[in-house]
TrEMBL record:
Key words of the record: Coiled coil, Membrane, Metal-binding, Transmembrane, Transmembrane helix, Zinc, Zinc-finger
Lineage: Eukaryota, Viridiplantae, Streptophyta, Embryophyta, Tracheophyta
Designated name of the protein: Uncharacterized protein
Sequence intervals crossing the membrane: 107-125
Keyword tRNA-binding: no
PANTHER family documented for this protein: ZINC FINGER HIT DOMAIN CONTAINING PROTEIN 1
């Protein structure tokens, strides 16, 4: 991209490229550029460190060869995932202490849901029983 092998019909941007002074100094020679590229590659490989190769060792007479491998993905801890402000606020609201009235309201809501389910099951059984007679 540093070379100017463009045609005369190519549009050029009038936007100036702003680069931090330390970055200009760091990328001045090819050795530093290669080192930065390797650092980026290593960081990318570390991001995918959750992938792990596990060999299958079965004693059964199956068609699997010893060379067959399975890739398993480790679950990352939930703490590493970034959260939006709204998600943080909702989580904090759930953790906040509730009043007795709020707890009582939730208990009655759950009881009414349970009662409705039991009533529906009872009605269904009574209909099935009455049809069988």
């Amino acid at each position: 991209m540093d070379e100017d092998n463009s045609s005369p019909f190519r549009r050029m941007s009038s936007r100036t490229r702003k680069v931090a002074p330390r970055m200009v100094a760091a990328l001045a020679n090819s050795d530093n550029r290669a080192q930065a590229a390797l650092a980026r590659l290593e960081a990318l490989e570390n991001d995918n460190a959750g992938m792990e190769t596990i060999e299958i060792n079965e004693d059964d007479d199956t068609s699997l060869d010893d060379e067959d491998q399975v890739y398993m993905h480790k679950r990352q801890s939930k703490g590493t995932k970034r959260k939006t402000r709204q998600a943080k606020a909702l989580e904090n609201a759930r953790k906040a202490p509730r009043t007795f009235a709020e707890l009582l309201h939730e208990v009655f809501r759950l009881m009414s849901t349970l009662f409705g389910s039991v009533l529906a099951i009872f009605t269904w059984f009574s209909n099935v029983y009455s049809q069988s007679e």
